[in-house]
Amino acid sequence: MTVAAILKHKGYSVTAVAPTATVREVAATLSERRIGAALVIDQAKQLLGIVSERDIVRSLAANGERTLEMTAGQLMTRTLQMATPETTVAEAMQMMTAGRFRHLPVVEHDTLIGLVSIGDVVKARIMQQDTVVESLTAYVAGSA
After folding, report:
1. Torsion from C-alpha of 23, 104, 34, 48, nearest 10 degrees
2. Which CATH number, 2.60.40.2550, 3.10.310.10, 3.10.580.10, 3.40.50.300, labels domain 3-143?
3. Is 115 helix (H, G, I), strand (E, B) or coil?
4. Tell me, what's the pLDDT at 139?
5. pLDDT tens by residue, 95-114
6. pTM of the predicted structure, to 2 decimals
């Protein structure tokens, strides 16, 4: 199974904020949409980074309430690992585990096409395992 299959199932829409959005606004967006991260995209539709709940919490611990007036551009993680539609679920899981992050932008021909979370990847992996178990069960039952 690939990232393309995950996106086909979950959809291609992403939540994005402008680099000028305040962290207070980003936090409100994350809360309203019940998500853990928002991509930071400029007016030219270029992906600049990502702001996650984890980024906000770390900044709150270091900077206190000043964090809420910072911008997404100031707080965002700039160095992103990317997946392509052809990235396998196992590869995505490995990237996320090794990098200790929970959201993976998906690009095709240098164009952002989606975002997968660790929850999406785990769900896909469980579905894969369920299919294997069903196949093996059917094979064993047919052999008896």
Report:
1. 30
2. 3.10.580.10
3. strand
4. 77
5. 999 999 999 999 999 899 99
6. 0.84
